[in-house]
Amino acid sequence: MAAIYSGIYVKLKSRNTSWEDKLKLAHFAWVSHQCVLPNKEQVLLDWVSRVLVSYYNKKLGLEDEVVEKLWAYLDNVIHSKRLQNLLKSGKTIGLSFSVAQVINERLSEACSQKTQQNIGTVLSCSKGILSTPTLSIIYTAKCELLVDLLSTLCKLACQQLASDDAVGSQLFSVLQLTFAQYLLIQRQQTNPNRVFGQVASHLLQPCLLLRHSLTVRSWTQADDNHVRQHLSREIRNQIETLLQAGLFQPELFSSYGEELLPQEKKKASLKSLFLPVNTVQTKLGSGFCEPALHGAVVAGSVSLLYKLFLDSYCKTESHLVCFHMLGRLFGCLRLSGLQQDLGENTLSPADWSTELLALEQLLNLVFSSDIYNVASDRIRHKEVQFAFYRRLAQLLTRHSQASIPAWFRCLKLLISLNHAIVEPDLDDLVASAWIDAQVSDQRTKKPQEALISTVFQTYSKLRQFPRLFEKVLAVICQPAADELRAPVFSAGLKVKLHECLLEQPPNQILDILCLFVEKCQTFIIPAVEGSADMALKLLSVSSVLHAFLFSMRSLDDVTPSPVVIRAQNLLAKMQTGIIQPLMELLQTPRREEEKSDLWLRKASDSVLLLVYTWVEVDTLFGFSCSKYMSPVADIAGAVTGPAARHQGISAFLPVVKEQYWKRVMELGNSFASTSKYCLELLTLQKMKVILMQTKTDLQALRHAAAFILESGRSSMKRGESEPWDGDITVISDLTYPTAHWHLVISNLTILLPYISLQDVEYIANVLVEMLVSAKSQEAATDQESFISTEKISLGLVRSSFLPELKVLHCAFLTTLIHQFATLLPTAAKNSVDLPLQQLSAGDTPWHEEILAPCKPTDSLEAPSENKLLKYELSLSWKTLEKVAQCVLLLAKSGYRVILKENRLESCLGLLEIASLLNLDSLLPLDCTRVFLVLLSLIVNARASVSCSKPLFLKYLSTCFHLLRCLQVGRNVNSVFKVFHASDILEVVMTSQLTASKFSTDVLGTPVWAQYLHEVQAFLENFLQMVIERRQSVRLNLEKFLSFLVSCKPDVGASKSRGWKNWNPVAEQLLLMAFTTLCHVVTLYLQQLPEKRMQSADTLSALLESVVLHMVRVVEHGLQNYTQNQPLPVTFIPSITTLLKADLQKSWQKEPSGFLEQPRIKLYQKFYSQILKELHCAGGNLQFLQSALQFLTVFCSVPELYPEKETAVTVVFAIKRLLTGPAVTTQVIQNMEMELAGVLVQLLGTCSAEEFCTIISLVLQGLEITNVWQEKAKEVLSAVTLTKFLLSCPLSEDKEKAFWIASPQILTALAMQTKEACQDQSQISTIVVPILETVAALLRQGEGFLLNPHHVALAFSILLIVPLDHLKTEDYHGVFRGVHEVLFSIVQCHPKVLLKAVPSFLNSFHRLVVSVMHEGRQKADRGNTDEFEVILKCAHLVERMYTYIAAEMEGFTVFSAFIVAQYVTELQKVTLHPAVKKHLTEGIYHILDLCIERDIKFLNVSLPPGVREVFKDLYNEYNHYHKAKKHGEEKYTA
C-alpha cells in the first residue's frame, strides 16, 4: 500500500491535478499512515505555505474558495493532535518567515477594507502558530513581524469595538496571546533605544486607541462574556506593561532628564538627537484616529503615560524632571490652548468634562507622588512649579465649569498642594464655585461640598476664617448672577462648618458675626423695601448668621468674660439693629397684589429666621453660662407669671410691640415657607419654656400644640410635597409640608399629651395616607440625604417608638382598619354590621384602655368615674365579642365579600403597612382587634373569578404571616376572651377548604408552597398556644379533630359520604392540618417531663385517634397515585410525622413495644418507593429534603427495614443520588443538614460489618479509574460521603475501622486532585470538595493519624492545586480550601509540621504570591464582589501569619526566611491599600519573632531593590506596630 501512495507529492506539484484533488490528497496524506513520504509533515507544511505565499505574491492565480480552503487546511494542520505529538516527541518541524508576512498582509488588508468577515481562519492560524513554541519562531526571531502583527490586531480590535456588532472572543484571545509573546521578547532585548523606537513608532498609537476603545465601549449582553469580564481587563494591563517597559526604561532616564531640564540644569550639552518626550508628544499630536475621537483619546492617554513615567522614575532626586514631564504632557491637552485665550469656544461641555478629568488625574498623581515641595520649589527652583499651578488656577477660575464634577476636584487638588496657588483668585473661587454656582445634580454637589470643605479646613488651620468670610460677604453683596441664588450652606457644609468652628478662637467667630450684622444694618436693610435682590441678600446673610450661631461652641462658665460680653452685645445689636427695624418695615399696610411680592416673602422669612435663631441662642446661652445676661432680661422681668405665658411667642422679645408681632405672624402664616416653619419652631420653643416651669399652664400648652398642627393642616390636605434637604432657609410651597411633618413627628413626645383626640386621629390619618402613597411610589427613588413625608412616616412606623405612643398607635390601627373597611364592597343589606365596619367605628372608645390609668380622678367623683370607665371598657370588649360572633356567623353561612383584582392589590398594600408595625407589642384590646381584622380578611373574603389566583394566595399568605407575628405577642391570649380556640380553627379551615375549589390550577407552584407553609405555621403556633394554656385542651383539640374528620373538600357539593368529589388542593390542606395536629401533640409529649407523664394520657389518647384518621387520609391519597407516578412531595412530611407519632405512642405504652404490622408495611412500602425515586429526583430540593428527613426517622429503627435490606442499601441509594446529573455542589450544600442526619442514624445503628462495606463503597468511588472513565460524579459522591462520615459520631470499633482506612482515603484523594487539576471545569466540582474533606480529615485525625507520611500527603495535594487564571468564585473556594488544610496541619499536627517545614512554607507562599497578584493596584478594580473575595483571602493570610507567630515557637528560626519571601514578592507589585493592610498586619507578627541578628541578615543578604522595600516595611513596623505593642504591654498585668 505504501508504494501506491508514495507519488502524492508529485501530484501535489503537478499542474494537471485540480486544486480540489490536491486539497483532498494533502488532507489524506496528513491523516493517513499508509502514505509514506520522507519528512512528510514538513513537506506538506512547506507545500501549503509555498502555495499561499505564491498567491499573495501574485505569482499564482487561485479562486477565492480555493484560497479559503488552503487557509483552512493550514489551520487544521497547525491545530492537529498529530503535529502536537510530533513536536512533543522532539521532531523538528517549522514554517517559513514568508507565512508570517502573508498572515500580516491578510490581516492588514482586512483592516484597511474595514471588513472582518473572512479572517477567522487566518486568526486561528496565527493563534496556533503563536501558542506553539516551535512554530512561533517565525515571529519571535523577526521582531518586526511580531510588532507589525500586534499593531494590525490592535487596529482590528478598535474597529470591532467601534462597530455596533457583538464583540466575539477570537480576535481578542489572539491579541492577548500576541501581547504576551511581544512582552516576552521585549524583556529579552538589550538595546533600550531600539525598544523605544519600536514602541513609539509602531505600537504607541494603536495601543492607546485600543485602550480607549476598551474603556469607553458600552458592553451589552450580546458581547462575549469572557472578553467583557476578563480579556478586556487583561489586555489593558498588558498595554500598560508594554508601554512602561518600552517607553520608560531605567536606561532612558538620562535622555528624559537632558530633554526636560532647563538648559542651565543640564550637566552636559545635548550631544544626542534622541528626544523621547518630543517623540511621544509628536505621536500624541498626530492624527492617528478620527478627529472626533482624537481629543478624548489623548486626554485618556496623558494621565496613563504620566502614571507610567512616575512609576518608573519618581524618586526624591528626580522630582523636578517629573514636574517638567507633567508640563509637557499637559501641553498635549486642548486645555493648554486656553491659557493663551486661544479657542475658548471650541470646547463643548463633553470636551470640557474629558479634559478636566484628565487634568484631575494628572494633579492626583502629582499629589500622591509628593512631587511638589513648596520650600524646595521656592528656594532651589525659583517657584517654577508654583507658577505653573498658578496658571492652572487662573485657567480654572476664569473658565468656570460648575456643572462638571472634575472642575471642583481640580481646584480642591490645587488647594491641597498649596493654598497660596488659589489665594489670589479667592473672590472668583467663592463666587463661581460656591455662592453663584448653580449645582443641582447630586454627583456634582458632592465634589462641590468637598472643595468648599477643603477651603474651610485650610483657612481654619491658617486662622484666617474671618478673611475667608469677608470674601463670602463681598460676593453675597454683589449683584446676583441669577434671580434666585442657591442656599449658602448645604447640610454637608453645615457639618464641616461646625467642625471648623469648634477649633476657632471665639473672638474670630464673633468678628465674622459682627461683620455680617454690620453689613446687614448699613447696606442691606436700608435698601430692602421693594427690592427683591436686596431681600435675597438679606436671606443669604440671615442664613449665614443662623448657621454660625447654631454651629459655634456655646458659652459656658469657663468662657472668658470679654467673650461673654461681646456675645451679649452681638445679640443686642442683632435685636435692635436688624430684627426690630425689619419688623417695623413689615408694618406698612400692603395692597393684596403686593402681598405676594418676592421681597416681602423673603424679608418675612429673614426676620422670623433671625428671631428663631436669636431666641434659641439666647435661651441656650442663658442655661449654659451663668455670666451671660440676656439683652431682654430687664424688660422680661417686668412681665412675669401668667401674663408672660399668655403672651405667646411675643414674650420672647418683649421690646417689640404686640401689634408688630401680630402683623409679622399674619404675614408669616400667609406664606408656606421658612417664615411659617419658624413660627412653628418658636411655638414649640414656647412649649418647652412652659414645660420647664414649676407650674405648667395646660391651656397654653394645648393652644400651642393646636397652633402647630393647624398651621400645616391645609398644606398636608393638598397632598403635594417634595423632598426637603433639611435646610431651614430653602423651604418652599412644596417642601413646607415635608418640613412641617418632620417637625410634628420629631416632637410627638412634647405635642401628643396636649392635643385632642381629633388631632390624634388627624395625625394617624395622615400617617396612613403617607404610607399608602409611599407604597405606590416605591419605584421613585429620592436622594439619600433628602427627607420626604413618606420616609418620615415609614421611619416612625418601623421604629420601636410608635408603640410607646399608645394613643397614636391605637388611632393608627383604627384608621388602618377603616381603610380596609372602605376597600371591601358593602352591597349587603347588613353591611353596617360587617366586622371591619364595627372594628373601626368612631363611636366605640377603643382608646379608653390606654387613657384609663392616666385620667386624674377626684376623690368625691371617683366612684362614678370608675363606673363610667368600666362601662366604656366593657363596651369595647362587648363590641369585640359581637364582631367575633359576626365573623363566625358569616363564615358558617357561607357569605363572602368578592374582591376584584385592583381591590385585592390595595388590600395587599395595607397588609404590608400592617407588617411594618411591631405587632407583638399591642395592648390586649388592640391585639384582639387586629386578630379579628386578619381573621375576617381570611374567612369573609374571596377573590373574583377573573382575579389572579397567585395574587389571592399571596394575600392569604400575608394574612396568615401577620397572624403568626401576632401570636408571639405577650397579649395574644386576650383573643380567647372573645373566641373559643376550636371555633377559630374551624372557621380558618372551613374558609380554606372552600377556597380550594378555585385554586386547583396553582397547585405545585412556588406561591402555593409559600401559602401552604404559612397556613401550617399558623396552625402549629396556634395549637401550641392551646396546649400551653392548659385550659379546655382536650375539648378544643377533640372538636378540631372531629371537624377535620367530618370535612369534605367540596362542601355541600355532593350528598355522597365517600371520596368521589375529592380534589387534590383540599387533600393537601386536610393532610397538612392532620399532620400539624399530629406533629404538635407528638412534640409536646416528647418534651413532657417524666413526672407529668400520667397527666399526658389525655393527649396520648387524642394522638392515637389523630393517627388512625390520618392513616386513612394518607392511604387514600396514595391510592390515587399509580406505581409509575412519583410520590407527591406533600405526602412525605405527613408520613414522617405519622411515623414519629407511632414511635412515640409505642414507646409510651411500652418501651420495648413495637408498631402494628399493617402500619409497618405502609412505612416499608413508602421507604421502598422513596429509595426508588431518590436518584430520579434531580434538583428537586423540596422532595430531597423531605425524603431524607423521612429516611432519618425510618433508619433510626433498624427493625423497620424490609427483608434482606440494611443500612448499606440506604447508603448505596444516597451514593446513587449524589452521582445524578442534576445534583450540583449547590444542591448538596442545600441538603447538607438532612444528609448528615440520615448518615448519623445509619452509622449509629449499623453493624461493624455493614460499616466496613460502607467504607469499601467510598473507596470504590475514589478509585482513579473513575476519572479515566469520565465518571466525575462517582468521585464527587465518594468525597461528599467521606466528608459526612467525618462529621458522624462513631462507636469505638467503627472509629478504629475508619482510621485504618484513612491513609488509603488520603492517597486516593491526592491522586484524584492531580487528575482533576488538569481540567479547569473540575476545580469547583471536585478540587474544592476534596480540599474541604482533607481539612476535615486532618482535624478529626488528631491523635489517630500518627504516621507523618500520611499527614504529609496533604502537602502533595496543596502543591498541585492551581491558584492562577481562575474564576472569582472558584478562586475563593480553592484559596479557602488550601488555607483550611494548612491551618488544620498547623493546629492539629504541629510535630509533623516541624519535620515538613519546606513543604508548608512552599504551600503557604503560593497563597501569599497569589493574593498579592490578585490584590495589586489596578486602574480599573472591576466589580466590588470580586474585590471582596480578594480581601477575604488577604484576611486568611493575615490569620495564618498571626497564628504562626502566636502559637508556633518552632517557627522562630524561619521568621527571617518568611519575611524575605514576603518582601521579594512585595517588590514586584503595587498592592491595593486594603489588601496591603491585611498582609502588613500579618507580616508584622512574623517580624515580632525576628531578633536583631535576623534583621541584620536581611539588610545584608537581600538584593538592592528588595532591600529598600524591606527597610520601608521595617520602619513602618517600628513606627506603628512595635510602638503600639509596647504601649499595650505597658498596661498589661
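That was protein one. Protein two is written in the same sequence-then-structure order:
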Amino acid sequence: MFGTFNHHCVTNDTQKDNVTWNNLAIPDTHCSPDGEGYQCPHGFKCMDLEELGLSRQELGYSGFNELGTSIFTVYEAASQEGWVFLMYRAIDSFPRWRSYFYFITLIFFLAWLVKNVFIAVIIETFAEIRVQFQQMWGSRSSTTSTATTQMFHEDAAGGWQLVAVDVNKPHGRAPACLQQLMRSSVFHMFILSMVAVDVIVAASNYYKGENHRRHYDEFYLAEVAFTVLFDLEALLKIWCLGFTGYISSSLHKFESLLVVGTTLHIYPDLYHSQFTYFQVLRVVRLIKISPALEDFVYKIFGPGKKLGSLVVFTASLLIVMSAISLQMFCFVEELDRFTTFPRAFMSMFQILTQEGWVDVMDQTLVAVGHMWAPVVAIYFILYHLFATLILLSLFVAVILDNLELDEDLKKLKQLKQSEANADTKEKLPLRLRIFEKFPNRPQMVKISKLPSDFTVPRIRESFMKQFIDRQQQDTSCLFRRLPSASSSSCDHSKRSAIEDNKYIDQKLRRSIFSIRARNLLEKETTINKILRACTRQRMLSGSFEGQPAKERSILSVQHHIRQERRSLRHGSTSQRISRGKSLETLTQDHSSTVRYRNAQREDSEIKMIQEKKEQAEMKRKVQEEELRENHPYFDKPLFIVGREHRFRNFCRMIVRARFNASKTDPITGAVKNTKYHQLYDLLGLVTYLDWVMIVVTICSCISMMFESPFTRVMHVPTLQIGEYVFVIFMSIELNLKIMADGLFFTPTAVIRDFGGVMDIFIYLVSLIFLCWLPPDVPPESGAQLLMMLRCLRPLRIFKLVPQMRKVVREVLKGFKEIFLEDCHGIFRINVSVSKNLNLKLRPGEKKPGFWVPRVWANPRNFNFDNVGNAMLALFEVLSLKGWVEVRDVIIHRVGPIHGIYIHVFVFLGCMIGLTLFVGVVIANFNENKGTALLTVDQRRWEDLKSRLKIAQPLHLPPRPENGGFRAKMYDITQHPFFKRGIAVLVLAQSVLLSVKWDVDDQVTFPLATMSVVFTFIFVLEVTMKLIAMSPAGYWQSRRNRYDLLVTSLGVIWIVLHFSLLNAYTYMMGTCVIVFRFFTICGKHVTLKMLLLTVVVSMYKSFFIIVGMFLLLLCYAFAGVVLFGTVKYGENINRHANFSTAGKAITVLFRIVTGEDWNKIMHDCMVQPPFCTPDKHRYWETDCGNYAGALIYFCSFYVIIAYIMLNLLVAIIVENFSLFYSTEEDQLLSYNDLRHFQIIWNMVDDKREGVIPTSRVKFLLRLLRGRLEVDLDKDKLLFKHMCYEMERLHSGGDVTFHDVLSMLSYRSVDIRKSLQLEELLAREQLEYTIEEEVAKQTIRMWLKKCLKRIRAKQQQSCSIIHSLRESQQQELSRFLNPPSIETTVPSEDHNTNNPDNPSQPEMSGLQQLLSPTLSDRGGYRQDSSDLGRPQRKLGQWRLPAGRTSVKSIVCKMNPVNDEASSGSEVKKWWTRQLTVESDESGDDLIDI
C-alpha cells in the first residue's frame, strides 16, 4: 500500500551527493511525485533522497521499505508513540483516504483490541496463580491486628455486634479525661480540619521571584503555627498512649516522621529546601476524613506484599536492564544516553513509560550503525514489549485482585444486594405526589340509560376504602370524646365520683359500640351487594379486566404448600438415610442437615425479598390508581387532554408503534426462529418515531460537518435547511410525546429523567439559534456560547437508543470512582527540521536557526509558580506526555537531586495511577453489570452460558454413504495433512507481499504470477470440497462461504490482471492475498480463540464505540467554533487543526491515543501579543481561548482516554474469560461441545438447526464421555431430561441451543453455580418435572397392570373356549368313532389348511404380544421338564381314551418346544428395536 517514504521537498539547487539540512523545507515535508499527495511549493521540487545519495542510515529506519522495516514500523505505530507523524508522512506521499484507513484501523485493532488481550491474558493467569499461591500472601480479609481481640457489645438498637478491643495496648500516664478527649471523634475531626486548613494555606502560596525566596511572610508564620499544633498533638498522644503504644501503630509512625521533618523545615536555614516535602505529605492524613476513601486506599495499598513485591521487581528490572544497556552502548560514539549509569537508568525508565521511547531507540540505531541496527531494534522492542504489555498488565492484575472480595463475602453481599433491590421506592415521584396536597375531587357518572345498554363502570376502591375507614374514625372519635377513668386519677377528691360513674360509662360505651358495629355490618353488607352486582354486570357485558382480584383457590394453596414441602425434601431425605447408619457418621449427617437447613433459610429469605418487592410495586400502583380516581387532572397531558381522549390515543399509537421482532406460533405460542432475527431485533430496538428522529439527527449532524469558520450557517442558506428540518421534526416529535405521555405531571412524562431534560434543552437551544441566527458572533460572547451548546445535538442519540444510556451511566459512574484522585542578552535556537532524517553536518555548516532575545521566563508549556499551574503540569505528566521536558528543565534549573521527584511521580502515575484507572473502571464495570459479586463457580457458569450462546452446530455435511469418488474426496479434504498443507500454502502466498508490488519494478510480475499459481491451487481446493460435500453442504459453513468469496475474487483478479496489468490490478491482488491470510486464523485453536475474543469484543462494545464517536463529534463541532481559526504553532499545523469538522475529528482521534495532546492544548491557548485579536467576529481572529482550551482538552482526555478506552479493556477481559479456560476450571470443555456438535449433526440430518422433540431421546442415547447418560443407572435422569424438553417446548421443535442449555444445567451443581433468583426458578422447574415424571410413571405402571390383567382374562377365556370345543369334539368322536383312514387325513388337512382362521389369529397374537411371565406355561418349556411326557390342557376332563386323545391334542396344539419359542422371542425383540417409535408422551416416558 505504501512502500518507501523517500520523496521530500528540496530546494531547486539541490545537487546529488550533496544534500544538507539547508536544502530541506522547514519543517521537512514529504511529497508525492505523481500528484496523489502533497505538492511542493514554489522554489522546491519533489525528489527521492535515496537517489540523491543518502544512505539508509541517514534516511532513518521507519517506513515500509521491506518486511523487517514494516514490522518495526507497525510495532512502533501500535505503541501509539509517533504513529501520527507516520500517518502525516503517508498522507503527503500517497492518497489521503488510504493513509487514514490504514492507520486508524491499525490503532483500533492493534493498540485498542489486541494489546488489551495481553491485559486479559495476564489477569486470567494471575488469577490462577493467586488461587494456587494464596497461602503465600494470606487472606485479604484479615484486617484486624493480632494485638486486638473481639467481644460482643450491645448497640443502641438492642442488637449485638463484635467490637475490636485493644486489650494488650499499653496506656500512658495522662489523666483519664485527656485519654477520653484524645479518643473522641471531636478531637479527631478537629485535627483533620486543621490539616485541611494547612493544605489550603500551603496551596495558596505562590512563587514571588528569586528576591523573595528568603523572605519570611505570613505563610511562614502560618506554617510555624501549624507545626507547633501538630507537635503538641503528637506529644499528647505519646502522653496518653505511652511511647510503646504510640509507636506500635503504622499511622503514628508516619505522623512522627512528619513531625520531625516539619519541625526541621521551619528552621530558617532549612525553609524552602528539600524538607518542604514533609509539609506537603501532610495531605496524606486527609485520607481518614472519608471512610469510603480510607477503605479504597486500604484495598489498593493495604495488602502490601503483592504490590510491594511487584514494585521491587520493577525496580530490579530497571536496574538490571540499565546495567546491561550501559555495558552495551557506553562505548558508542555520539551517543550520550548511556555514558553513565544514571543516564542509562533514565533512558530505560523513559522506555518503560513509553514517552519518547522511539527517539531513544532511533538515536541508538543511528549511533551503532546499519550492521547492528536490527539486533539493537530487537533488544529495545523486547524490553518495551515486556515492560509495557506484561509488567503494566501485572499491576492491573494486582489492583483487580486487591479489589476482589472473598467468596463468602460475595455470597453475603449478593443476598444484601437482592434485599436492597427489593426495597424499591413505594412512594411516587415528587412531581406526582404533588396531587396528594390537593383535596379529592372524584368525577361522578350520571346514568341515563338502562344497565343492559352500557358497560357499568368499575366501583372506585379508594372511595369505598375511604368510606369504610371513615366509620372507624368516627368510632374512635366518639371514644375519645367519652371521659376516661384513668385521666382523672390525678384528682383524689373526684375518685369516688368517677368510680360511681364507671358502670354507667362502660354501659354507654358498650351500647354505642354495638350500635356502631351494627351500622358497619349493614353498610359493609350493602357495599358488598353493590360490588357483586357491578362485577356481575361487567362480566355479562364482557368488560372483565378491572374486576377485583379473586382469592387464592384451594388448588393454588395446595400447590403452594407442596412447594414449601419440596424445600424440605433434602432434610427429610438425610434424616431417613441417617437412621440406618452407625454412630460414626451421625456427625456428618448432622452437618449436612444443618447445611440443608441453611439453604432452606436462604431460599425463604429470597422468597421474602421477592414478596417484599412485589408488595412495594403493588403499593405504588395502588397509590397511582387512587390519584387517578380522585383527581381529575391527574395523568392528563397539559391538564387539557383527557385520559382516554381519541386524540391522545392516536398520539399514543404513533409514539409507541414499533416493529414486532418476535414472530410467535399462533398454535403453540412459541417464538419462531427467523433467518434474519438479528436484523429484526435491530428494527425493533426503538419505535418508528425514534427511528425517524435518529435519521433526522444524523442528517443534521452531517450538515453541521460542512460548517467551518469560513462557511457559517448564518450566511449559507443551504446549511440552514438542515436546521429547519431538525427543528420542525423535533417539534412534531415533542408535541406527539407530550400529547401522549404528558410533559411533567404524568407517570410517563417527557421530563421524568435527565434524558428528557436534555431533549428539551437541545430543542430550545436549536429553536433560539434558528430564530436568532446572529450575523456577528464576538469571541467569548453569549452567541458563541449558544453555538457551542448547539454542538450537543449528537447527544440526542444517547436518549433515543436505550443501549446508549447504559454507556452514559458507565461513564458517569466512572467519574465517581476517579474523583476518589532576571537576565539580558540574545542566544541562537536551532530549528528541528526533521524527525526521521539523520544528516551529518558538513564542515562549517550550521543547522537552520534564528536569534531570539534572552529573557528570564518560564518554559512555554508548564510552570510551578502556583498551585493551579502545578496541577496542570502534573496532570500532563500523569498522562505521560511531556514529562521528559519537565524532567530536563528541573534537572537543569534546580539540580539532579530534584530529578528524583519527577521520576517517583511518573513511576507512581504510570505503574499505579494509570493502572489504577484501568482496574477501577474494570471493577466498576463488573459491579454495574452484576459480575463483581459472583463467586468463582458462578462466574464459570456465566462464562459457560455466554460460550454456549456463541456455539453453533457443525456446518459439516456427513460423509457420503457409498465408497465412491465423493467419499474419497471427502476423506482427502477432511484429512489433517490436507488442511495443514493448505495453511502452509496460505502462508507462502502471504510471503509474496514482503516486497511492494510496483508496476515499474521488474520483480512484481513474477511475484504476481506465483500468486496466480497459488490461486489456481485454492480453486482446486474449493472444487474438491464442492464435489465432496455437494454445493448445498459446502454452503452451510460460513468459513466455506468466505473461502469461496476470496477464491472468486482471486479468479476475477486473474482475469483483470492479465487484461489490464496496471497499478490497480496489483493493489487488488495484494488485497486478495490479505483476505486469504485471515482464513488461517480459523485453522488453529489458539488463533481461533484470540480471533473470537476480538470479534466478540467488537460486537459487545459496539455501543461504546458509537458513544465514543458521538462524543468525538460533539467535541469536534465545539472545537471548530472555539479553535477553528487559531494560528499555527508547534503542533497546530496544516495536518492538525480545527478548521473543519473532519480535521477536528482527526485531531481528537490523535488526542485519544495521547499523541502530544498537551502541546496541542497549549497551541490553542495562545493569547495576545502572540496573536491578532478581534472583538466583533471570532472568525477574524487567530487567538485561542485559555479557559476554553483547558476545560475542553482536559475533560475530553479524561472521558475518552481514562474511561471509554478502559471500558473496552473491561469488555475484552470479560470476553477473554469465555474462551480461555483450563481443564480444571471449565464446566464443559471444548471436547464436550465438539462431541455434542457431532452427535447433533448425526440426528439433524437435514441441517435445519432444529429437531423434533421425539428425537431428543435418540440424541441423548448417542452422547458419550462426560455427557453420556447410562440408561441402566440413570434411567430416571433420562426421563427427566426428555420431559423437560417436552414441557419447555410444548412438544414442538427444539433448537441446538435448547438441548445444549438443558445439558449444561444438568451438568453443573446448581447450588454453587447459579445465582439466587435463577437457582429458585431452576429448582422449582426440576421439582415440577420430577413430580410430573413420577405421575406419568405411576400412570404407565397402572396401564401395564391393566394390560396384563386384560391379557390374562383374554387368555383364560380363550383356554376355556378351546377346552369346551375340544370336549365337544371328543365327546362326539367318542359317541361316533370314525375310521382311522378318514380321521388322520382330515386332521392333517385341518391342520395344514391355509384357510383355517384360528391359525393366523394365533400367529398374529404371538407376533404382536410381547412375551411375559404369564405366558411361560403356554409358550415355553422349563428345562426341568425336558425328556418327560407333557400334560396337555385337554387331558384333565377326559374320562377315557387317554392315549388317542393325547395324540390328537398334540396335533391340535402348536409345537411349544424351547427352540421354536426362543426364535419367536428373538424375532419379536429385533422388530421392537429396529422400528423407530414416533409416539410421544407415555411411550417416551416408558423408555
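The chain has a mean pLDDT of 75. Keep this in mind for the problem set.
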